[in-house]
Amino acid sequence: MTFASLLGNEELKAAWQYALHGRFPQSILLTGPKGIGKLTAARVLTMALLCESTGEKPCGQCAACRKVEQNYHSDVTCIDAGDAEIKVDTARRIRSECAVYPGDSDRRIFLIRHAQNMNAAAQNALLKLLEEPPEYVVFILATTEPHKLPATILSRCMRLDFKRVPENVLIAGMSEICQKKGIQVSDSALRIIAANADGSVRDGLSILDQCISGGDTKVDASDVLEFL
What CA–CA distance (Å, rounded) separates 36 from 27? Predict the structure, then answer.
């Protein structure tokens, strides 16, 4: 995965790439609708922050990039409780881990999904860290409901708002995926999928996967309509 693999939100990607050449913010809040690509973007950003390449980052090829993409980098911690409440014990564990220097890189990355589910005690336990994290720590928070986070959290993070992906961008992305898999999907089928995805990359890819799951190498509009 690289920045080029992310669909849409070109301005955000350009801003990230620019920031990587300077002092990157240590507390980031990613917001946007479900399925918009926040988790994928967070992983690509994490790869870029830990990438060992001397050229464009992330390279997607070095050991660090591969470890992040395969979810086993020792300096990356992902907090994902789904829809469950994120309690103070989790926040305390994060604080403890922040005291440990990175082992395989020069940074430790903490990704907190569904950040709006942190209870008040967990939020309070992380406030100081978000404001003044150790120099080697980067926090990436992701949420679909930023209004549920208190101002004390919002003010400590650089907020990046993801927008819904335009239909033409989603169509182009799905078309490229199909070409790589050797599957022929008609333009009309892709347009129907994109329209029903409503700007959500995850929903669009999910519909596409369902339509090609039967092993057919050709998909047309009637196949998509039948599935929907």
Answer: 20
DSSP notation for 33-74: STTSSHHHHHHHHHHHHH---SSSS--S-SHHHHHHHTT--T
pLDDT category at 179 given cuts 50, 70, 90 is confident
The two tokens of residue 171 are 């169509």
Q: What is the distance between the alpha carbons of residues 202 and 219, in angstroms, rounded to a whole number?
A: 19
> What is the C-alpha radius of gyration for the chain, rounded to an integer number of angstroms?
19
Residue 74 and residue 86: Cα distance in Å, rounded?
22
Give helix 187-197 / helix 201-212 axis angle, nearest 10°: 140
- What's the pLDDT at 119? 94
Shortest CA distance to 25 belongs to which of 109, 88, 93, 96? Answer: 109
The residue-averaged pLDDT of 3-26 equals 77
Closest CA to 186 of 177, 175, 202: 175
Q: Which of 9-23, 26-40, 101-115, 157-171 has the lowest mean pLDDT?
A: 9-23
